[in-house]
Amino acid sequence: MIIKSTPQITPDCLEGIFEYLRNDRSSLFSCLLVNRLWCRLVVHLIWRDPFFCVKGYLSDIIQAYISCLPDTSKQIVINEISNTDEKTLQQLQQQQPLFNYIKYLQVFNSENFNIAFKRWYEKFNKPYENFNITKLLIDFIFKECSILTKLRIYVWDKWGIPLNKMNFDLLFNREKEGNCLINLKDFVFIFYSKTKSVELENSFQIAQNLFDNMEKKSNKIEFLEINFRGQQPPKKVDQSVGNLIKSQKNLKSCKFIEYWDPKDPSIYKLLLNNSSLTHLNLSLSYFHQSFFEGLLACKNLETLELSRCPEMPSHLVNFPSKGSFSIKHLKVVMNYPAFNESLIILLHMCNINLRKLFISGVDETIIDAICLYNTQLTHLSLLAQQTIFDPPQSLSVLKDLTHLKLANIQTYIFSEHTLTYFIDSLPSSLQHLYFNFNINTNSLKIFLNDCKIPLKSLEFHQSDNQDDEVFDSLVNYKKSNQNVCEEIRLFIEYPHTFSLNAAEEAKKHIKIILKVLRNHDLW
User: Fold this and answer.
1) pLDDT at residue 85, rounded to an integer
2) Do 181 and 217 touch, CB atoms closer than 8 A?
3) Cβ proximity of 396 and 371 under 8 Å
4) What is the pTM of this model?
């Protein structure tokens, strides 16, 4: 008699399955409990980034790490939290981990650790007044973790783990594991200090030493963000940052907000000479000629984000004649009418290469420039601080436009006379339209009745005077266009003035969202 054995999935296949579930914490925790093999294969996925999608249990993560400490270090922890009941102290001393969780760590985020330590101290009814245990544990983590792929350091003035409590040298000069940051892909360093002090100078030196070590030993960074706010670092720190950028072989995305002297061209040359760079996020108070020359030369740069659009120097007004940028996605978070000329020159140089555009601070002049220079846009997001499309302006030249989001901070974006003209001027290519401002019932009905473009999705916002007639209009539109229209979303802010029965009936056909903050861009 031949007994057929049940087919078994090999550990290699299981690892591939579990890796596919890496962002599904609930499923991973379930797999953890199946058997010993599954537990061994899953545990490293959970503990490589222990704070991912975890809102509770923060103190338990710290406790698990403390359990990995040697006995002498555990005794230091116990001494620090003396006056705790004897049973708890005994558990701390005797607790042994099932795994060495520190070995699995790949993502170190100082902000997450700081919050978790605060919760841990609260568990013992202790104030989080010093960082003795924090330093003890972080030093041990830096000595014992195998490979970090993400390193994120956040120091917000007097909040956060101080730099002198994190010995970064332990990441590089280790007897057993070697260089822990050799495969680092993601590096964020944000430091904010209000006042000058001796400690501040020490922090700048620690940051410089970290950047210098990374220049030599971390050359695979793909995302880099460095920001010093409040007190600016000395030039030698700038030089170390520049050398770090220069040493990178595969830098794809870079973010610098409120950092270096905008009139110093060296940083632009270092950034924009990097042939792998595709995404750049900057805060500028001055447009330097080297910045524009670098953008012209940087052919692989696809996305440019500016937190503000500064004034354009007079000698750069005719710069568009020198060529076009390769940029496909442009985001300008803050534009003022006084600097419209700067933004128009930027739009001119992006020309027809531009596909996605978001601008906060739009008037009719900017809309005219978009329709003149950027006629191959597919995504357009405009946040106005005044009434636009008055006098009437047509978007019909944007024949590739599929997504349009219009927003206004305070008032209605159209005048009484321009809504109908706006509807008629929409390009036939449009598929998704978002009105991210308060639209009254009458205007809503006019739009739904007059718009003949087969839209796949619609979004409306109402902050006052909602009535049941709004639901009726939207439901009727959805039913009439059910072969094309896939989704209608209505965002409603408090106080509500509609009947609950009407809302429940409307939810069968449209999506109604309450108490949601407005999102003005399509990025």
Assistant:
1) 59
2) yes
3) no
4) 0.85
